[in-house]
Design a protein that fits this description.
Distance between the termini of chain B: 16 Å
Largest sheet of chain A: 8 strands, mixed
Order of helices and strands of chain B: HEEEHEEHEHHHHHEHEHEEHHEEE
Number of helices of chain B: 12
Structural class of chain B: alpha/beta
Number of domains of chain A: 1
CATH topology of the largest domain in chain B: Rossmann fold
Strand order of the largest sheet of chain B: 6-7-8-3-9-10-12-11-13
Oligomer: heterodimer
Strand order of the largest sheet of chain A: 6-7-8-3-9-10-12-11
Radius of gyration of chain B: 21 Å
CATH topology of chain A: Rossmann fold
Distance between the termini of chain A: 40 Å
CATH superfamily of the largest domain in chain B: P-loop containing nucleotide triphosphate hydrolases
Helix content of chain A: 25-40%
Helix content of chain B: 25-40%
Largest interface: A-B, 42 and 44 residues
CATH class of chain A: Alpha Beta
Number of helices of chain A: 12
């Protein structure tokens, strides 16, 4: 991978924004009120190199899934640009976009909701081949499906069964096969293991890692589980209320987290090793509503280090080391929640 | 034996809970023995379908047709709950033993305010309430506000008048805990209290449960699939697999020196921050169907250490220090 480090990134996201307009009631219209806006993704920028896994971590509602979907234009971004292999994806026409989708795919979180219960595995996995005209004959399509089905660890005999005949882990394998059958280069993995039991989760993680190596894939791996992200990512982006607050190599971010949110996130993970000996940062309060985001730094209402500056002005990402940025007003003071507050 | 019994608040012996289905009889819980001592926190770990929720649903008397308890005794404070009639059981359920459900949104009544739901529990179970109508109402309101305050919900007086949908996921889970604690139970069964929550909120809820446990001196059963949660919050742990307990003991022993290949496998398949860079080792295969299970070790098909001797009924083996595992490789006395 180091050889390609200087090459242009496969995916480049610049100031991406996605806003949802709230619904107006009749009373709102009569009083002339304008739409309420939920800024789900708010000016996010990052690159992903070819063959790299970028882990995207954040709590529910922070906008990480919306970000993943906006990159693929499954939801149209409201502003910003996504460049894929030198091409501006956001400027493509619908038919060009459809062709592009062969190269960029997604694996969904819920293996129950994301598979059509009335289609067999062969039909589900074969659909992308049909849509992109990748197989000339039915038997060629079936061969290609059989090949990918074997690759994700299912049996050929499984091809004529329906989704309900499979367990959660096997269904997730079907979803992976569907994403891979068109031989894409980039895959958004949207919490692919969150719905699975621990032992099955490990099988799927292993499978995704093996497939990346064999097929030279590039992943945006979305998860709320920092241990999973730490295990498989090359670089990590930490998201809070629509913004990326820290971004860097997995070693830099997890060994030396600089944003107070990353620090508290890491300290909150219950771990099997040395229980009780770790320092714990107790955050108070819940994730604020994205309908009325806090002023200034969005983390300030929950941040133990917040000062007046944090309440009024928005921090910009700053470099805090090689390939490591964080957006916090108090970076210069080099404070760490993990050191200041013993358990 | 007698002294030991007095230490045990809950003692389940040989519990067997089955569900009749068209495909056959599903034995969801098969011969499970549980002891919960006074004041301790017992962790129950297992994957979906391992029988952990059904075991404690049986304790609470929540098993409905097509399910039934086939065998076993459930002793709470020395009384067999299975011998009680519906009215006697209702007096214990919610007052002495309370349970919080995994999904707080479906467990709460969407048509009642949080205050009304708290009041219901107190009306049903609190003997200390004053008898006069207005005094009673006032006492309930004060106690309810106090409970919400205890679980860390700000401005409880306003919040009592709100409905479940007006709260966030973490708040709802805390409200369920408040309702469960409203009758000052001696045993709290928390079924996956934090599974649906984010880590920072999860930490808040778990700290809350352990604070209250220390304050009220109650026992807690924490049902979870997260070994990390168990090792941080539980004194003892039992690991379930396919309807049976496969390992139990003090948390530190089970987590650091697991004896059963399934426990080892679970720990090995966990990505851990502290072991970053090391490969995880998934357990191959899947949980067996719980219908017509052969009389052999249930983990056999997935086990790395399997041997011909495993193809027989395996009992719990004593590994010393109060640690037991259902595996022939543990040399020790076969206990039933």
């Amino acid at each position: 991978m180091s050889g390609t480090a200087e090459a242009a990134p496969l995916i480049s996201v610049e100031n991406l924004e996605k806003a949802y307009l709230g619904r107006l009631s009749i009373a709102d219209r009569l009083t002339g009120r304008t739409h309420t806006v939920v800024q789900a993704v708010n000016g996010v920028s990052f690159d992903i190199k070819r063959g790299e896994i970028l882990g995207l971590i954040g709590e529910s509602g922070c906008g990480k899934s919306t970000l993943g979907r906006s990159i693929l234009r499954l939801q149209e971004p409201t502003a910003g640009r996504v460049t894929f292999d030198g091409q501006d994806v956001t400027a493509l026409s619908p038919s060009e976009m459809k062709a592009m989708r062969r190269r960029m795919q997604i694996i969904f979180q819920d293996p129950y909701a994301s598979l059509n219960p009335r289609r067999t595995v062969a039909e589900i996995v074969g659909l992308p081949l049909q849509l992109h005209g990748l197989a000339k004959t039915a038997s060629e399509a079936r061969d290609l499906v059989a090949e990918i089905v074997a690759k994700v660890g299912l049996k050929t005999a499984h091809m004529d069964r329906y989704p309900h005949q499979f367990s959660g882990g096997q269904r997730q394998r079907i979803g992976i096969a569907r994403a891979l059958v068109s031989h894409p280069e980039f895959i958004v993995c949207d919490e692919p293991v969150s719905a699975l039991d621990v032992s099955i989760q490990a099988q799927i993680i292993q499978l995704l890692m093996d497939l990346r190596r064999e097929m030279g894939l590039t992943y945006l791996f979305i998860s709320h589980d920092i241990s999973v992200i730490g295990y498989l990512s090359d670089r990590v982006a930490v998201m809070y209320l629509g913004e990326i607050v820290e971004l860097g190599t997995v070693d830099a971010v997890l060994s030396n987290p600089r944003h107070p949110y990353t620090q508290s996130l890491m300290s909150a993970v219950p771990e099997v090793d040395n229980p009780g000996q770790r320092q714990r940062v107790r955050l108070t309060g819940d994730l604020p509503s994205p309908l009325s985001p806090p002023s200034g730094c969005k983390f300030h209402p929950r941040c133990p280090l917040a000062t007046d500056v944090c309440r009024t002005s928005v921090p910009k990402p700053e470099s805090v080391g090689a390939n490591h940025t964080a957006a916090c007003h108090r970076l210069a003071e080099n404070l760490s929640l993990l050191e200041t507050e013993p358990a | 034996m007698n002294i030991e019994n007095q230490q045990n608040l809950l003692q389940v012996e040989g519990l067997r809970t089955v569900f009749e289905t068209r495909a056959g009889t599903v034995c969801a819980v098969d011969g499970v023995n549980v002891t919960v001592r006074r004041g301790e926190c017992l962790g129950v770990v297992g994957e979906s379908g391992s029988g952990k929720s059904v075991t404690f649903g049986s304790v609470m008397g929540l098993i409905r047709s097509p399910g039934r308890i086939d065998a076993g005794r459930i002793l709470f404070d020395g009384k067999d709950l299975r011998e009680l009639d519906a009215r006697q059981m209702r007096a214990i359920r919610g007052r002495d033993i309370a349970m919080t459900m995994q999904d707080a949104l479906t467990a709460l009544n969407p048509a009642l305010t949080v205050g009304e739901q708290l009041a219901e529990v107190m009306e049903a179970h609190d003997g200390d309430l004053p008898t006069g109508r207005s005094a009673r109402k006032r006492a309930i309101r004060e106690r309810s506000a106090e409970m919400l305050g205890l679980v860390g919900i700000p401005s409880p007086d306003t919040r009592l008048r709100q409905y479940p949908h007006e709260f966030s996921g973490g708040m709802r889970q805390r409200i369920m805990i408040a309702i469960a604690l409203a009758s000052r139970p001696r045993l709290l069964i928390a079924d996956e209290p934090t599974t649906a929550l984010d880590v920072t909120i999860q930490a808040q809820v778990l700290e809350l449960i352990s604070d209250i446990r220390a304050k009220l001196g109650m026992s807690v059963v924490l049902i979870t699939h997260d070994l990390g949660v168990v090792s941080e919050y539980c004194d003892r742990v039992m690991v379930m697999y396919a309807g049976q307990i496969v390992e139990q003991g003090a948390t530190a022993d089970v987590v650091c020196r697991p004896k059963h290949p399934y426990t080892k496998g679970l720990l090995g398949s966990l990505p851990r921050l502290s072991l970053r860079g090391q490969a995880i080792n998934p357990i191959e295969g899947q949980v067996p169907e719980l219908i017509n299970l052969p009389k052999q070790c249930r983990f056999y098909s997935r086990c790395r250490e399997r041997a011909p001797e495993c193809l027989q009924v395996i009992g719990m083996q004593d590994a010393g220090n109060g640690q037991f595992a259902r595996c022939i490789r543990v040399k020790g006395e076969d206990i039933k």
